[in-house]
């Protein structure tokens, strides 16, 4: 990348991306300023969270739980706005480019962590915060080495190189890492047989793998890895008895350890599997992961209330699937029934597939849907699921609905009663990420009259910098340069059919 | 309705609707205040407009038109927030209940105009404005008697009684009515053979039916009816030569007439067919109606700039369909192609159906898609369209995708190339309204630091009242009372399969 790109950078980043060259009117940038500094910064990312997800969770909390979401209270009363999420060359981002935009303040090509397409590394914000003495924590429901947390601390051209990212984490030396991903730490699971648990323990980390160990540990530095891959969904933790900590429990383990540092801290919390359940078109898994995020949010706002020198920044990185409660019945008068019907859904498709195994018959499928989704499938629908699992026959198609067999498992239970829903009247536009602007909310003392408006996701970097008094500029790549690089070599991870983005 | 309901009303409206009884924590209400008064009020409603629609239009304007939307500039720089849209008993609203919430400040049951389910009439805001001497205007791309404009001026238990609403309009006596709906004014089309055109002319209105008549008229009061039913989509006006005024031309006819009144005015402008094209899952029709709305918005903001005593309130009434640009290609790197491919779409499904007639063959269908949608259908896809039009065979189903045969016509051209889209990679969650919160934006002098946050749609009534200094309270019905009434009698219009809501 040439120096001139760096120089012309600060204006080009974000605002002008995707604008044709020559005579184009620049998009208006809103550059809201906090107007004050903070000692601690908490960034809470809802991965793959759309406004339709919000509406469903808001309604479920009100109708079935008799309360308002903590998120509803924040949206109503504290500064919030919308963020554009597109990456450097694609109007639909994936999570690493979205993470980079927030963490590094510049647009990148989809697929790499804190790095440009030509290999130019970027400095992630939490690395800069560590340099100035802040303690660092990462808490997530995905593998702890996944794109959204990783993009805040390390640089790697391949977001899927999670075994390597585990080593980068050790070298980075954050105070708290909590999430999933045993396969990237366990010597029996890693290709290179390295024992990353032993290496972290040697570096002074308490290493914990169960909720009990997490609760008992008094280590000041913590590596918690609670599952082989991603941490199971909240719906399965809550109703199927899977023994992992909740997101709130992880947050509650992280906060006192980080708060003990006299120079303050930065913490990223990620409700990472909202994205996954939306990829799968799994309404109950999304709902309960949003509700679990809300409990974590309660804990975080309570911490901010007790520690007013803390800024909480809440953001979605992009929307996924856009599962929408749609109008049902005459004059849409039966629409709310779909909210109530979610109460009968007690497991994720992920868990159902584990239970069903590789060769279920139609009877087993029907029983699983009855017990875990509260839905009575027809013979035809059950057969659709059997063929998706056993023969890779996918419906309605495997492009738009590319996360299979799960998207077919969702399709099988679509609501078919036009008068009164007997299944949740929720539909998905696809099994992929989408382009809509997403939420940005700030919570902290002295913020009441901040007008966020519509900002670019790169503006998160500037808000974080202002909060902690950290100022630097990562090199900017132009869209044209990136497109030129993309022409000459294949890039990108496997197709989202195989890997969630 | 009992007096006590009116008394307990102001707290119950909106905030508590859909909360279970007893011990429920009230939802937090944000009650932002303008802090100043205005002489004129313009309410611009984007009917059925989702954040996914916004993202696609923003990208199309930047990539293909080389400019930023006026709406993007407003969202970036002026106070904006989100609105909850649910109606009194349904988490998914239709347009009359959404219109009532804004116009009357209270939640109602889906289906009636400025009226409760027990027949209690409500006073619409524009009726109150007229009482205090404001001139009134309604400009829309739907039938001028449609739910969203009508809910601001008249009360009627049946939103579909448009022939009767035309008579109510005459009695109401607004200064400007512009839109579609000849069938409700023309004596040859009305069942009762009344000549509403003659009646309006006798009451002093200039009556115009073409763009030329609209441009030539120098009448101070105006009834413009430009089509049999709804005004054709912008995409058909622009590329298929349909001879109707654009929304901007209607706005430009309305503004000087209203501004001539010395007591100021209230004007509702509706981009009403964004909702319809979203019901149909018609991406180009939605795009161009959003772009046409943006041109009208430019004209409106220019008026506000010249007349700083004017408040412009911009709102969506609900989302519809949620047609989302979804990630395509490896690492989603091909996603933006779908935006560019929209350039080849030059007609709506509505127009295509007119051209194809009732008995098209597969060859005619292929040619129509090629010429008007820029898409080469396969034989199988063309046959799907033939059977939908000629035999009412609908895919994928007629509940979620209930607007037929159009939803099948959309389904036929779904993107099927996983590597690189050859058709727009846009998918719909359904053909119905959805539950997500929608946009609310204010534009006017002295508003820079207003924090709108998340509000209820009933708050629009309070903002309008504050703007013009009009204070009154419509009677409130409880959700319980409404549910009791709904039990005892059938209500609602025809199923949304037959009538767009």
From TrEMBL, chains A, B:
Keywords: Magnesium, Metal-binding, Phosphoprotein, Zinc. Binds 2 Zn(2+) ions. The active site is at residue 95. The keyword Protein biosynthesis does not apply. It holds the Pfam family TAT_signal. GO terms for molecular function: alkaline phosphatase activity; metal ion binding. Zn(2+) binds at residues 47, 275, 279, 317-318, 433. Mg(2+) binds at residues 47, 146, 148, 270. The keyword Magnesium applies. Its cofactor is Zn(2+); Mg(2+). Belongs to the alkaline phosphatase family. This is Alkaline phosphatase. It comes from Thermus tengchongensis.
């Amino acid at each position: 990348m040439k120096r001139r790109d760096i120089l012309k950078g600060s204006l080009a980043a974000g605002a002008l991306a995707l604008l044709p060259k020559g005579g184009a009117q620049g998009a208006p940038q809103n550059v809201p300023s906090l107007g004050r500094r903070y000692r601690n910064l908490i960034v809470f990312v809802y991965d793959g969270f759309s406004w339709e997800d919000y509406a469903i969770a808001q309604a479920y909390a009100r109708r079935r739980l008799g309360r308002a979401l903590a998120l509803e209270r924040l949206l109503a009363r504290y500064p919030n706005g919308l963020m554009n999420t597109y990456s450097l060359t694609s109007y639909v981002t994936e999570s690493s480019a979205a993470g980079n935009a927030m963490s590094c303040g510049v647009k990148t090509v989809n697929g790499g962590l804190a790095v440009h397409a030509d290999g130019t590394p970027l400095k992630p914000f939490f690395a800069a915060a560590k340099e100035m003495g802040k303690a660092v924590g990462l808490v997530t429901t995905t593998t702890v080495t996944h794109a959204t947390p990783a993009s805040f601390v390390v640089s790697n051209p391949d977001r899927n190189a999670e075994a390597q990212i585990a080593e980068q984490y050790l070298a980075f030396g954050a105070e708290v890492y909590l999430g999933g991903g045993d396969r990237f730490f366990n010597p029996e699971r890693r290709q290179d047989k390295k024992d990353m648990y032993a290496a972290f323990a040697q570096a002074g980390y308490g290493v914990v793998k169960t909720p009990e160990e997490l609760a008992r540990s008094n280590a000041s530095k913590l590596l918690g890895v609670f599952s082989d891959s991603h941490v199971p969904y909240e719906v399965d933790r809550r109703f199927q008895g899977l023994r992992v900590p909740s997101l709130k429990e992880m947050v509650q383990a992280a906060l006192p350890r980080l708060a003990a540092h006299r120079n303050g801290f930065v913490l990223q919390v990620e409700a990472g599997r909202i994205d996954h359940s939306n990829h799968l078109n799994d309404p109950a898994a999304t709902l309960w992961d949003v509700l679990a995020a809300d409990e974590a949010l309660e804990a975080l706002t309570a911490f901010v209330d007790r520690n007013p020198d803390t800024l909480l920044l809440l953001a979605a990185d992009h929307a996924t699937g856009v599962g929408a409660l749609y109008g049902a019945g005459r004059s849409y008068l039966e629409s709310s029934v779909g909210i109530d019907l979610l109460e009968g859904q007690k497991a994720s498709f992920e868990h159902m597939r584990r239970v069903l195994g590789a060769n279920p018959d139609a009877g087993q499928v029907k029983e699983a849907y009855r017990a875990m989704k509260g839905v009575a499938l027809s013979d035809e629908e059950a057969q659709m699921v059997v063929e998706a699992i056993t023969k890779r026959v996918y419906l309605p198609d495997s492009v738009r609905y590319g996360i299979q067999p799960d998207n077919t498992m969702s399709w099988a239970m679509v609501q078919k009663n036009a008068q009164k829903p007997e299944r949740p009247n929720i539909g998905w536009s696809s099994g992929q990420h989408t382009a809509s602007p997403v939420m940005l909310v700030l919570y902290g003392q002295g913020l009441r009259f901040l007008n966020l408006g519509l900002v670019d996701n790169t503006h998160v970097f500037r808000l974080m910098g202002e909060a902690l008094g950290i100022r630097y500029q990562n090199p900017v790549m132009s869209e044209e340069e990136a497109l030129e690089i993309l022409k000459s070599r294949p890039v990108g991870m496997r197709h989202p059919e195989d890997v969630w983005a």
